[in-house]
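Whether sequence alone determines local backbone shape is best considered at the level of individual chains. The sequence in question and its structure tokens are set out directly beneath this paragraph.

***
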Amino acid sequence: MRELGDETEEMHMKVADRIKEAHPHAIYLVGPLMRELVYPRLMGAFSGHPEIIVESFLNSINAGKKIAQLLRMRNNEDSSAVVYVK
């Protein structure tokens, strides 16, 4: 979302707010600005909810590895998963 120029910070905050409204079970953020701007906001919002996972990765390769690992683990369980990638 760096291409947003002057609106970068505002748009990242809007993303954080939308994530909070969705009440997810797990959040995996990618990129330095997501780590800098969104991660602290979500950690604060979900601090009283230890069951909600919030993780931050600097690149999509590491995030992808983590998510693939989790999906393989969940594949053995009787559950469903939704993965949203931007």
In short: The two ends are 9 Å apart (CA to CA).
